[in-house]
Write a structure and sequence with these properties.
Distance between the termini: 40 Å
Shape: globular
Largest sheet: 7 strands, parallel
Number of strands: 12
């Protein structure tokens, strides 16, 4: 790093929900001199201090171009992830897992001293959904029937070996819960509900009641708050994993109050059956195995992020959900391929 110029940080997956927030958080920090956002497609989005370049981690010949992008970088934040096609797990494996292996090797070859990797709550093995939640020592075996969980858990094992072989590289693993903001609405609606479900239908004022799987409890965090944790991980001399979630835990009662609707508990098996039918008839892109994982993943304890990173979310979990619902009602998005909303087609 040139002290007069500040840190040079490269961010993969820079045009998605988390990436757009991370590049903004980094660009505002006076210790950061430049940010290079990598994505498969150059966005129309303009962020002061951020430059863009194309990179497709799934390409087998992509190691040399990646290494060139990383040359001279002080840190890499790895966010790139492909959720679709959910019906073709080999495609997502090649992009998410094999692509990450290429990136880690490019980090090593380019001599980048810091790697901040976006893992996930989904990497955790099934655990208790009660306070105080599990800490970062909980097993990261994932839920094997869900591709997303398998891929996140596999990369945890890869990084175990990577850290042992390359102790000179400071590796940080961020394990956030579900992340929402206004402008993620269009992207997340397409990912989880399908491209053809009108956003106007996902509105609390149109729901006569809300079927809710019995026993389900979960955590949320606003994407901008999670991005602040990534910024701190780049700038703070820490290693290892950090859980990221905001209070309070969301359950049936709180969700009903938040949405202003009557919650009707339904057996989890009934909810799963409905999702399985939607999956078989191709009316939903989300496989029922993902629902199984959500029912089994534990609540997280975020004390380490609070104490060692100095990270405290500004917004509550319900605040994040409210922001998302506002975005859905308006068709919000950003001028990037993954997040395009009504304004950008």
């Amino acid at each position: 790093m040139n002290a007069s110029q500040g840190l040079r940080v490269v961010v993969t997956g820079a045009t998605g929900n988390v990436g757009t927030s991370v590049v903004r958080a980094l660009s505002r920090d006076p210790a950061v001199g430049s940010v290079l956002g990598l994505a498969r497609r150059i966005p129309g989005l303009a962020v002061p201090g951020v430059e863009w370049a194309t990179a497709d981690l799934s390409r087998q010949d992509g190691l040399a171009p990646l290494e060139a992008h990383l040359a001279g970088a002080d840190a890499v934040v790895h966010l790139a992830w492909r959720f679709h096609p959910t019906r073709r797990p080999l495609v997502t494996w090649r992009s998410n897992v094999e692509g990450s292996l290429r990136l880690f090797e490019a980090v090593r070859r380019a001599g980048v001293p810091v790697l901040v990797h976006a893992s996930s709550l989904a990497a955790y093995a099934p655990g208790p959904q009660r306070a105080p939640g599990v800490d970062e020592q909980w097993p990261t075996d994932g839920w094997p029937d869900a591709a997303y969980c398998r891929e996140k858990a596999y990369l945890e094992r890869v990084l175990d070996t990577f850290e042992l072989r390359h102790p000179q590289i400071r590796v940080v693993r961020m394990r956030p819960t579900f992340q929402f903001k206004e402008t993620s609405a269009s992207e997340q609606r397409r990912i989880f509900a399908g491209r053809y479900l009108p956003g106007a239908l996902i509105r609390p004022d149109l729901l006569p009641f809300l079927p809710y799987p019995q026993g389900l409890r979960f955590q949320l965090v606003h994407t901008d708050d999670a991005a602040e944790a990534f910024r701190l991980a780049v700038l703070t001399d820490v290693r290892g994993a950090f859980n990221l979630a905001a209070d309070p835990v969301v359950d049936a009662r709180l969700l009903g109050e938040l949405l202003g609707v009557r919650v009707v508990p339904v057996p989890a098996a009934v909810a799963r059956g409905a999702l399985a039918t939607a999956w078989r008839t191709r009316t939903s892109p989300a496989p029922p195995s993902l629902f199984d994982a959500v029912l089994k993943i534990p609540l997280m304890n975020c004390a380490r992020a609070h104490g060692e990173l100095g990270w405290l979310p500004v917004r509550s979990g319900p605040d994040a959900l409210r922001a998302f619902l506002r975005g859905v009602a308006r068709g919000d998005g950003e001028d990037t391929a993954p997040m395009a909303g009504k304004q950008w087609g």
